[in-house]
Amino acid sequence: MPITIVPMQSRYNKQVGQLLAQAFHGKFNMLTKRNEDELARFFEKLLEYIPTEPSTQRMVALQQGEVIGSIAIKRKPIVDTKKSRQKLPSWRMLSQFGSWSLIKMLIGLYVLDHKPEPGECYIADLAVHPDQRSKGVGRLLLQWAQQVVEMDPGLDRLSLYVSASNPRAQQLYDQLSFQTLSRENRWILHLLFNESKWDYRVQRREGF
Question: What's the Cα-to-Cα distance from 9 to each of 14, 38, 52, 158, rounded to whole Å?
Fold first, then answer.
């Protein structure tokens, strides 16, 4: 069955929230002991509050109208002198998840965040439905990101962080010619997620 890659819309928030929970439950469970359904609701609500910025973009992979994968990329934002108003979580959201649990999850997301350098297109997250893994969905989403870099003269590389203990993802990035530039041993990530070794990998645009 054909798979299409389309821009993220608010109507996909619930399905993408579920994908992110399935992909990252093991990590965030270390922080809050929340089950997958609770984490899915957290990500769904978080998607409502992330401001839309030209420097960020999320796409989803659809098959028969169902979201089976998602990818988010970001680049260095253009400096804007105007202060943008960021939508803040409501008290209802705070009470639903518990303020302390919410704070810990937001800290975890902040620690995992990466600020791209000029010319860098950074993959913030990549998630595929468990039933669709090893079927080429992740590769399709990565190929879309590759095309973004190839078509933008201001970009010269695609980058990401991947856990050193994730052999399936490492193998895919090897196949797509992502080079490991560094392996970081970060105690804060070990403390939060019980995974201290992370590889910073880059795929350079042809000719650079």
Answer: 11, 22, 11, 24
